[in-house]
Amino acid sequence: MSTSDKEKALETLRLFSEACTVSITALQQPLSASSSSLTCAVLRKDFLSLLTLVYTSTTKLTLTLRPSEPSYTAASGPLRDLAQHISSLTTCAILFDAHGATLSREVRTVAKEVIEALRCLSENFVNQGGQDYLVATGTVHDVVSQAQQSLSTDNISAVKKRWMSDRSMLDDVLDEVAYMIETHGAGDEEDEDEGDLDDEWDELGLGAKKKMSEAELSRTKKVHPLLRFTTGLQKRVLLDIFPRISSQSPPVSNATLDALPTHSHNLLINSEELTAALYAPQDLANISSAITSLAGAVSQLQSALLDGAMLPPPRTPDADALAEGVSSMRVSNDGATEKPKTPTKDRDVRGWFDTCFMQIDRLSKSLNDILASDSAN
């Protein structure tokens, strides 16, 4: 193979890398408000087909440029195809803007990850002679395969996926507080060497967690139910609200749906901040502020669900049933439920949410009253 063929191939790889950069820049631009004549289902099918073409052309490229036996002239075809594929992939991803911001951001992220992996592959051949080309090729294949398996079908499924991503972290927060109560916030026993290391971290203000006083432990136990209820609330939205809005007529607008992930993430962030404030030594003002912020996040979620007509209409008031629902509400690691359970079709979903929101509001106010009293003493 002549030196000229090699230089031409390397120059084509450089141009391809630049094309990748241009596509990535386009995908990073703000979402547009333009409409699309193509349905979400058609766009998704086209996008997945383009990913398959990228996968195949990437394999062909690496086979022609493998360092042990490169065929520089044969690489021009796969490179030309890949350049066309990333251009089409970028255009297709941007067209999703008309079908919801959450879905569009997910698709754009996938496209950026694929194109970034291709850029790294091309730069590997140019700058490193293909030394790690198998790793770079595997990255492209992995990103494509994962996207083909998990790409959301529509905007509501993309919103649901974002909501679910916060779920496990909220469970972790709840487990952290439960463990804090169990160990009085001190954690596991440490050996002498670890103690010496903690002394060094203490000098930087990053030392080991302190053991709680009895008052701090009692305070943490009182706050724990608030975190359990908010965690349970987040789960019930996933289990009760998403199935409802998936089949609701008229459908919930994409603008309304796109606001939901922010509310879920606010629950997570404020729960984490409240948990952090519970570690000894406790600052009562910080705990009170964190409780107020968490209650505010819950209130904002309530308003969003009501304003977006995502909650079912209230049933005819039944004072006895409501009292029973409040008294029997419990929260496990799985979230808040009513006990005894009733068949799904007979459950008063709206009543459950109204009761849960009321309980969180009352509990947060009660906790702040207790903290104010503790501060005064």
From TrEMBL:
<comment type="similarity">
    <text>Belongs to the CCNDBP1 family.</text>
</comment>
<dbReference type="InterPro" id="IPR049317">
    <property type="entry name" value="GCIP-like_N"/>
</dbReference>
<dbReference type="Pfam" id="PF13324">
    <property type="entry name" value="GCIP_N"/>
</dbReference>
<keyword id="KW-0131">Cell cycle</keyword>
<keyword id="KW-0963">Cytoplasm</keyword>
<dbReference type="Pfam" id="PF20936">
    <property type="entry name" value="GCIP_C"/>
</dbReference>
<dbReference type="GO" id="GO:0005634">
    <property type="term" value="C:nucleus"/>
</dbReference>
<feature type="domain" description="Cyclin-D1-binding protein 1-like C-terminal">
    <location>
        <begin position="197"/>
        <end position="302"/>
    </location>
</feature>
<dbReference type="GO" id="GO:0005737">
    <property type="term" value="C:cytoplasm"/>
</dbReference>
<feature type="domain" description="Cyclin-D1-binding protein 1-like N-terminal">
    <location>
        <begin position="48"/>
        <end position="181"/>
    </location>
</feature>
<protein>
    <submittedName>
        <fullName>Uncharacterized protein</fullName>
    </submittedName>
</protein>
<dbReference type="InterPro" id="IPR026907">
    <property type="entry name" value="GCIP-like"/>
</dbReference>
<dbReference type="InterPro" id="IPR049318">
    <property type="entry name" value="GCIP_C"/>
</dbReference>
<keyword id="KW-0539">Nucleus</keyword>
